[in-house]
Design a protein that fits this description.
about 130 residues; 5-stranded mixed beta barrel; about 20% helix; about 40% strand; signal; DUF3465; DUF3465 domain-containing protein
């Protein structure tokens, strides 16, 4: 007779469900009001950009996405999280810190929590990169 680890399975199911709490309207509101905000968005990858070189905060994978018609750069810290194998045209779900830099909006902190900031992640094809 096999035993099933129900409590563990429940934790995994709840975590995966949380990954799907997309709220593009919250992003739209932050963008329109030019306020920084923790966001979870569903977006389409539009362009791969060169990695930002390693500086004090490490190298960053960069790519553009569109969220409800708005182009946003994703800055994903490769020192803290694995590279996400994105290609243009794919749909991703992203959780991170939105910064409304005029003319260059960005979502960053898309990696696990570091103690100074809430953890973020990028979900692609059922895999979560954090």
């Amino acid at each position: 007779m096999r035993r099933v680890a129900w409590p563990g399975a429940l934790v995994v199911a709840v975590a995966l469900a949380a990954c799907n709490d997309v709220d593009n309207a919250a992003f739209d509101s932050a963008y329109q009001s030019r306020n920084s905000a923790e966001v979870t968005v569903r977006a389409t990858v539009t362009m791969l950009l060169p990695d930002a070189p390693a500086g004090a905060e490490g190298a960053h994978q960069r790519f553009d996405v569109t969220v409800d018609g708005t182009t946003v750069e994703i800055d994903h810290n490769l020192s803290l999280a694995p590279r996400v194998p994105v290609v243009a045209g794919q749909t991703v779900v992203i959780h991170g810190q939105f910064e409304p830099d005029p003319g260059h909006p960005v979502i960053h902190y898309t990696h696990h929590a570091t103690g100074s900031h809430e953890g973020g992640w990028i979900q692609l094809n059922g895999s979560t990169y954090e």
